[in-house]
Design goal:
The protein has 17 helices and 11 strands. The protein is an alpha+beta fold. The longest helix is centred in the N-terminal third of the chain and has 51 residues.
Length: 447
């Protein structure tokens, strides 16, 4: 039988060995993190060099995105950091062991690395992905859903979850913009853009987030005409583009119509519509920034004042608001349930849609709001004329440009077989110099 001293010595050796292995494992993890960061920087440098070659090169002072050991967030649509991947049996057992990845979100793809020596284990194209919080799992989890698979990922803390979700939303939005050909269509100088946003921030209520009240909002919903903070913008994106279309004030390219809409609306007017029936003592405004409240506010429209009982209800009021050029009333009517594509009631507008009324009036601001809310550019009136025909009759190049940017066809013919340009040439203004301007302007891009 062993003596007590022998047993004590054996226990001491085992404990020391365990402590040594633990220290060695921690050192390996630390070295792995450094290696991953170096690999990420190398990948970013290679991508930047390839992009510079594609763009014709950049000056010697061109900044390499993500160069060096960058922080976790490199821009509004790029990020890197540790993520745990929960899959299959691990989801049921809530076991995240052996599923830790170094994640790099860049170029519209999420790359998950297991080893710095090997290519990424998973590369996920974010174009058709959606992201949401994962309930029923370990803390700090979110779910990335694509047409082919659903993945549950775990961030390091609650703040990291919100950052990952917001950046994924932003990356997806940029990819979708590129698909419809709206990105990089028009560039502004830095000074002109700064002056524009200074003007928008001076609109009533725009100095704070429309939902939580945080100062200095840097994001906007172009379908609502409101400014918001980064955290609330992530919630808005999760609601879907049919509810709210989010863009960055400083990083995205803006057209004149969207900027004019933001200037015409503003947070104060938006909250007058969507919080009309919300009690002043409904709770701490900091709590309002939660996803549930924002969903009730915009998706369910729980606090919107119901439409009046007048003739035609919200539908008639919508057509009247468009004809009067009142975007605030237009948004109110849409929030009250008016059909954005509903034809005007009999005897009041010849069966035109709200978009056609806006085109007839040459009102680019109301037109932008209707387009952002899903107006159909190909819808025809009883004479077979689309909104583009009516813009041509009005000789409104701004409206025609906005419609054609959304896919309106310059070759569509009405009941008499005339295209919008032919309708314009036969209109009361005659062909003259105006038609030459149309051919070289909005129409020139369609031919």
């Amino acid at each position: 039988m062993r003596s007590g001293l022998e047993a004590l010595a054996e226990v001491t050796l085992v404990t020391a060995g365990a402590e040594e292995r633990t220290a060695e494992q921690e050192l390996l993890v630390e070295r792995q993190a450094v290696r991953m960061q170096l690999v990420t920087s190398h990948i970013a440098e290679q991508e930047a060099l390839a992009q510079r070659k594609t763009d014709g090169g950049g000056g010697p002072g061109t900044r390499v995105p993500g160069g060096g050991v960058a922080g976790p967030v490199t821009s509004s649509h790029e990020m890197r950091g540790w993520l745990g991947k929960v899959a299959g049996r691990a989801r049921q057992n809530k076991d995240l062991r052996h599923s830790r990845y170094w994640a790099v979100l860049s170029g519209g793809k999420l790359h998950l690395y297991r080893s710095w020596r090997a290519p990424p284990k998973h590369s996920i194209d974010l174009l058709l992905c959606t992201v949401k919080e994962a309930r029923g799992h370990e803390r700090f989890c979110f779910e990335l859903i694509s047409p082919s698979a659903s993945r549950v990922l775990q961030a390091e803390n609650a703040g990291a979850v919100q950052r990952w979700m917001a950046v994924i939303h932003n990356a997806t939005g940029r990819l979708l913009d590129a698909q419809v050909g709206r990105a990089e269509t028009r560039r502004e100088s830095v000074g002109a853009r700064a002056r524009r946003w200074d003007t928008l921030l001076a609109v009533a209520g725009n100095e704070v987030c429309v939902d939580c009240g945080v100062e200095g909002p840097e994001w906007a919903s172009i379908s609502l005409g409101a400014l918001m903070c980064l955290q609330c913008s992530g919630v808005h994106r999760a609601l879907g583009v049919h509810v709210s279309r989010v863009r960055s004030l400083h990083l995205d390219v803006w057209d004149d119509g969207a900027a004019a809409l933001l200037g015409a609306m503003g947070n104060a007017r938006v909250n007058e519509i969507f919080l009309a029936r919300c009690a002043e003592d409904a709770g701490d405004p900091a709590v309002w920034a939660g996803g549930e409240f924002i969903s009730r506010k915009y998706a369910q429209r729980a606090f919107v004042e119901p439409a009046g009982a007048g003739p035609g209800g919200a539908a008639a009021a919508l057509h009247a608001a468009v004809r009067d050029g009142q975007p605030q009333r237009v948004l109110l009517c849409l929030a009250q349930g008016a059909d954005v594509n509903g034809a005007s009631p009999p005897g009041s507008g010849e069966g035109l849609s709200p978009l056609m009324h806006a085109a007839r009036a040459g009102d680019a601001c109301c037109m932008e709001l209707l387009l952002q809310r899903g107006a159909d550019v190909e819808q025809a009136d009883p004479m077979g004329r689309t909104a583009l025909h009516h813009a041509a009759l009005r000789d409104s190049g701004a409206c025609a440009e906005a419609l054609m940017a959304r896919g309106a066809s310059a070759e569509a013919v009405d009941a008499h077989g005339k295209t919008p340009l032919e309708v314009r040439e036969a209109g009361p203004q005659g062909a003259g110099a105006h038609c030459a301007l149309w051919m070289g302007g909005a129409w020139g891009g369609a031919r």
